[in-house]
Write a sequence for this structure.
């Protein structure tokens, strides 16, 4: 599965801890991330990650493009609900494309824990059937 990992600045520690905790599962998948998030995950876990631009510089849009071409199976996006983001339109566009293409999207740690366990249990086989 192709998995996108994205975290706003105040959620990057959560993302690093999440990827450390689930690295044994994540290493079996192809990982993508926005620039700074990917760098921090790679430094902390050693997981191999294809990094796009930083979110404010177009990284969210690059991940959106992957969704539009059916190249992304899951988006784990730890958003910061308490800080205004200069690239809010890009963030909305990414989430909108997840809805357009029925791509599973979780926006917080609680959802991510459920989703990663579902992935490990094989509950994503419907994605293989669809494509
Ligand atoms: O801003 C982001 C997502 O909207 C994340 O970008 P970075 O991973 O480059 O910090």
């Amino acid at each position: 599965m192709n998995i996108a990992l994205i975290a706003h600045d105040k959620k990057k520690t959560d993302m690093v801890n999440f990827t450390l905790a689930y690295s044994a599962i994540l290493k079996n998948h192809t990982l993508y991330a926005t620039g700074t998030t990917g760098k921090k995950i790679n430094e902390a876990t050693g997981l191999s990650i294809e990094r796009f631009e930083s979110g404010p510089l177009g990284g969210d849009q690059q991940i959106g493009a992957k969704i539009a071409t059916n190249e992304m199976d899951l988006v784990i996006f730890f958003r910061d609900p308490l800080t205004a983001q200069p690239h809010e339109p890009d963030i909305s566009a990414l989430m909108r494309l997840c809805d357009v293409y029925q791509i599973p999207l979780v926006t917080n740690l609680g959802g991510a824990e459920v989703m990663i366990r579902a992935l490990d249990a094989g509950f994503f086989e419907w994605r293989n059937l669809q494509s």
About this structure: Residues 7-54+76-107+120-126 form a domain with the Rossmann fold fold (CATH 3.40.50.1380). Residues 6, 8, 34-37, 54-56, 59-60, 91 surround 1,3-dihydroxyacetonephosphate (CB under 6 Å).
